[in-house]
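Chapter summary example.
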Amino acid sequence: MHIVIIGAGLAGTTTAQTLREQGYDGDITLLAGEDRLPYDRPPLSKDYLAGSSGADDILLQERGWYDENRVALRLGTRATAVDPKAHQVTLEGGDTLTYDKLVLATGSTARTLGLPGADADGVHTLRTLADSDAIKAEFGEGRHVVVVGGGWIGLEVAATARGVGTAVTVLEHEGLPLLKVLGPEMAQVFADLHTQNGVELRPLVSVGEIVVEDGRATGVRLADGSTVEADAVVIGVGAAPDVELAQEAGLDVEDGVLVDASLRSSDPDVYAVGDIAAHDHPTYGRLRVEHWNAASTHPATAVAALLGGNDTYTDAPYFFSDQYDLGMEYVGHAPQGSYARVVTSGDVDGREFVASWLDSRDRLLAVMNVNVWEGLEDIRSHVGSSEPVSEETLQVVDQK
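The structure predicted for these 400 residues follows.
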């Protein structure tokens, strides 16, 4: 049997690794669009962007691993079409591969703004190692970077830039950064964190255009006509699932590739993992998660099913972030508007606390720990439960 994996990010590479760990002894071809060994992406907005780790430090596997595990890694090789009926993948240049099972791990692409000047020099998005290198080159004392978008990537870039002495302005369309993800109660924590670290946070603004002189960005003009001067602009307005191959192959696609609880697509021989997988979750319903944990944990379920098992994916969404002196983890799913109240335990002002999102029946939807790393097993075990959680369970940290 020949298994082809399209995409060599964390989800694709972990799929190849899991196939060998689960005893699959057949052929594996792993297609990597970039002409470099597969690497981990979270450091691109954190340690690697800050210069505290190098390109070799973020490799998912050393070069020898692919040879030792008989994974045919094809660097700089993009798939241009998938034919499910013929079980065939067409590659850039016209070559084809025949597969028995196919795993789509094509990930996401950085969203861009269709604005005048958005293609000028000095305007960046962050998705690849090369993107991180280009942004890093813009940092330094006496430099000013404008970040458009106050989501996770935008805020992590802002924190890293401030850490090396760069002046930063964050432009946010909503009233607070991370508002849709965390709701106003906890979004305010991150707004305060950044302003206290010298970021100029501009909420409730709309960007009209990128100001360009001699081919290079020099600022951002807002919809009200005012201009924020800049040495560089980073666009951090989210990511879009790369589903073009799946769509053109006739697979069911909405906000991502529609897969069942085993990560199987509408074609029984095609699976999708990572950012593109809109999977049927037993607790949360149809869900697509663009975070490291999904990319690292989807493959175990997909591989087991691909090899004939009946595994289903039941993990709650999980993500983490590091900004300045704040480290956090979030488990569950409680976007703005889905919860009734937030209960905190610990010292919110001192940024050492646990926040719990509850619905109207006091069922625990999500938990976020901020600079608290122990004693979390019990409360996390209640996330997604159909039963209400007790007030005692919510008090993870002594109040200060």
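To summarize the output: The longest helix spans residues 179-196.
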